[in-house]
Design a protein that fits this description.
- The complex is a heterodimer of chains A (475) and B (247).
- Chain A is α/β, with parallel strands linked by helices and 475 residues long.
- Chain A contains 12 helices and 23 strands.
- In chain B, strands 6-7-8-3-9-10 form a 6-stranded mixed sheet, with helices on both faces. Chain B has a 4-stranded antiparallel sheet with strand order 2-1-4-5, with helices on one face.
- Helix content of chain B is 37%, strand content 26%.
- The chains are: A alpha/beta (475), B alpha/beta (247).
- Chain A binds chain B through residues 1, 421-424, 426-435, 437, 441-442, 444-449, and chain B through 48-52, 71-73, 76-77, 81-82, 84, 87-88, 90-93, 97-98, 101-103, 105-106, 109, 141-142, 158, 162.
Chain lengths: 475, 247
């Protein structure tokens, strides 16, 4: 059953093409002038520039974290370009034909008549949002779904109120960097009592060379509202590493529900560890109101490095948080991912289901923290953490942190590690399945608890991605 | 159907099959009997192409094709089916998803159009009814939490759907009570045609009484020491294998 190294290297990455488009680029490197230029290019109000500069100074005083189970050469932040945008987008209706083609090729048509029914999209290309579909339709319901830049102009009061309210500008090294240089992203506001009638989604595309992507997503669900939001991403295949440092903040008010799903498919680099995206992302949701609910679902198949812990602050009584994760590390990929659940309100509940799959030379770590505050009576957490290993060169690690200050709470933790047994493969192959089909089936089965959480269209794509990632990962 | 000549098989230098010969023609039912460790299960796995075993000499032909040149899944698609003594549990993989993947893999290999979802479900339901499997079970994870009897029925369902040419049953009767065994024999009887053949490994006479073999082979120390008809099986049930070595 041994296979050639050649086949590993030829592992297909469908989204690895590059779009040729005229761009407006800032010089490489970072200083206060670059930040001022980002702000002035976007015609931002002065208060936002002040915040950026404050964040920049915090960042300068911080050290890059080194506690994660990741190894990579030191990032030179002066060798990154912080702003690159396609030229000639004077209005949202004048998107370059090449960019429209790019999204179409990625399976995300941006013309509303072609769009999948029930899915509104915000398309972010390098540093800017190029198109947001169905904004008008949603506006009739009072829903705001637009680029972050537009929200700064049209809804400054909401931005002022909620920006940095969940992830403080100095929360961590990468969040601080993002706060200083973020160029665009998505903003969502669902008014009280409104159930968003369609799936909202953002698609992030890195295209330009040497350019980092720093977007922010801010989602507010007011009392008794509901929204299901999905994000996807991809990048061209390149030999150099590119940095993606995003921040996502969610706020759920009384009895509101936010479902947030991610399909992360950044370019993973090759089998020797050359190229690929460095993905350092801070995602956090605040269950601010009583009975509110935030659910994170992530399928992480891409990136050379993944550093990401979508978390929930369970502030409101009877609020609940969920984290469902599938992380695959194949080739030379490394992932250190998990969640944090902070139980502060009474009767708060959290569920963590993590599935890590390692193949080839991949390294996969689950890192999760469950914290129960003194007054969080009757808090309940359930954590289940499973690892699946393929071959002898990959690794899986689990780092759970549990900190309970309330005696009336329950915290359960289960963990398992399995290797795909040769007998399982033999059984499936004896029924006519190829080795790849057999592994894809076993991996899909292993992740089924998580995949079932995804909206239908997303689940189909996730299954295809899983199968593709496992292709050639047989040793 | 299958012709095995002078087969020698080793695992880590240890010889498990030693100059074994066996011929099975279309429409025949063969029984393979022998003491523990004689090489019964090894032969079954080697025919199916298990990667742990190394064929060091001899030949294996299946309908004119050299089996040794074919991988496990290609042999399966050619029509070899090995029923496992302990069918494996695959967490999270629904039985119907697995069956559809397997059936279409075989169809594609044999240059047939894969079945559409509708055609497949029709086929699946009628096959499940024929075997006596509740439709609800098809939505459960493959063999996961199935009772011993359910696992065996599920193996039969796979045979019904995949329509193999050579069916190898490795102790399919182990752990079944007499009613389940009768039911199993009836299912096997229904599966039997003039075109397919069976190789049955078993220690017990009950299965052979209900599903009578045309030929019986006694295997010892990795080689077949005696061939005969059903009467040979009867004498083994009465006297055991002790006398065979004197022949």
């Amino acid at each position: 059953m041994k296979r050639d190294a050649k086949e590993f290297i030829n592992q297909p990455y469908k989204e690895g093409f590059e779009t040729v488009v005229e761009t407006e680029e800032f010089p490489i490197g970072l200083d206060e002038n670059i930040i001022k230029r980002i702000s002035s290019t976007k015609n931002e109000p002065h208060w936002l520039l002040e915040m950026r500069l404050k964040a920049y100074n915090k960042w300068l005083a911080m050290d890059e974290p080194s506690w994660a189970n990741l190894s990579y050469p030191k990032i030179d932040y002066q060798k990154i370009r912080y702003y690159s945008a396609p030229k000639n987008i004077s209005s949202l209706d004048e998107v370059d034909a090449e960019i429209l083609k790019t999204y179409e090729r990625l399976g995300i048509p941006l013309e509303e008549q072609k769009v999948l029914a029930g899915m509104a999209v915000d398309a972010v290309f390098d540093s800017v949002s190029v198109k947001t579909t169905f904004s008008k339709t949603l506006e009739d319901l009072g829903i705001i779904f637009c680029s972050f830049s537009e929200a700064v102009k049209r809804h400054p009061e909401l931005i002022k109120k909620y920006l940095f309210s969940v992830v403080a500008m100095g929360d961590n090294y990468f969040a601080a960097l993002n706060a200083a240089v973020f160029s665009d992203g998505t903003f969502v506001y669902i008014p009280s009592g409104v159930r968003c009638p369609m799936e909202l989604s953002s698609y992030f595309r890195i295209n330009a060379m040497n350019t980092g992507q720093f977007e922010r997503t801010l989602i507010i669900a007011d009392d008794d509202s509901f929204v299901s939001y999905n994000e996807g991403c991809s990048a061209p295949m390149r030999d150099e590493n590119q940095l993606h440092a995003a921040v996502v903040e969610l706020v759920a008010h009384k009895s509101a529900r936010i479902n947030y799903a991610t399909l992360q498919n950044w370019y993973p680099g090759d089998a020797k560890g050359v190229g690929g995206i460095y993905n350092f992302v801070t995602k956090r949701g605040k269950c601010a109101g009583e009975g509110s609910h935030i659910s994170w679902t992530q399928v992480e198949t891409g990136s050379a490095i993944t550093w990401k812990y979508p978390s929930c602050i369970l502030l409101g009584d009877n609020s609940s948080g969920e984290f469902y994760s599938v992380a695959i590390t194949s080739l030379a990929q490394q992932a250190d991912t998990g969640t944090k659940m902070f139980h502060i309100g009474r009767n708060t509940k959290s569920t963590i289901i993590s599935k890590g799959i390692s193949a080839m030379s991949g390294s996969n770590s689950y890192r999760g923290e469950v914290r129960v505050a003194k007054n969080a009576d009757n808090a309940h957490n359930y954590t289940s953490c499973d690892s699946l290993l393929l071959g002898d060169e990959c690794s899986a690690h689990t780092f759970p942190y549990i900190n309970v200050k309330n005696s009336n709470s329950t915290v359960e933790h289960e963990a398992s590690a399995t290797k795909i047994a040769q007998e399982q493969l033999f059984y499936l192959m004896q029924r006519g399945l190829s080795e790849e089909q057999s592994i894809a089936l076993i991996v899909n089965g292993f992740c089924s608890d998580v995949l079932e959480r995804l909206p239908m269209e997303f689940a189909v794509e996730a299954r295809e991605l899983l199968a593709l990632t496992m292709e050639g990962a047989v040793g | 159907m299958i012709g095995i000549k002078d087969l020698e098989v080793t695992v880590e230098e240890k010889v498990l099959l030693n100059g074994l010969n066996l011929d099975i023609k279309a429409g025949e039912v063969h029984a393979l009997m022998g003491p523990n460790g004689a090489g019964k299960s090894t032969l079954a796995k080697v025919i199916a192409g298990h990667p742990s075993f190394k064929v060091t000499s001899g030949t294996m032909k299946f309908d004119g094709k050299d089996l040794l040149e074919l991988k496990v899944h290609d042999r399966a698609c050619e029509g070899i089916f090995l029923s496992f003594q302990h069918p494996l549990e695959i967490e999270g993989v629904k039985t119907n998803t697995f069956l559809k993947t397997a059936l279409n893999a075989k169809r594609i290999y044999n240059k047939q159009e894969p079945l559409s979802a509708v055609e497949f479900v029709k086929n699946l339901k009628s096959s499940a009814d024929a075997v006596g499997i509740e439709h609800e079970m098809l939505n459960r994870a493959l063999n996961s939490g199935f009772s011993g009897g359910e696992k065996k029925k599920n193996e039969i369902l796979q045979m019904v759907m995949l329509k193999p040419k050579l069916i190898i049953l490795d102790e399919i009767d182990s752990g079944l009570d007499i009613d389940a065994l009768k039911d199993l024999s009836e299912q096997l009887q229904k599966l039997r045609t003039k075109e397919n053949s069976f190789l049955i490994i078993s220690h017990y006479k009950d299965l052979f009484e209900h599903f009578r073999p045309d030929f019986v082979h006694i295997i010892k120390n990795g080689t077949i020491v005696k061939d005969g008809s059903y009467e040979l099986a009867q004498s083994v049930f009465e006297e055991g294998f002790s006398d065979d070595s004197k022949d």
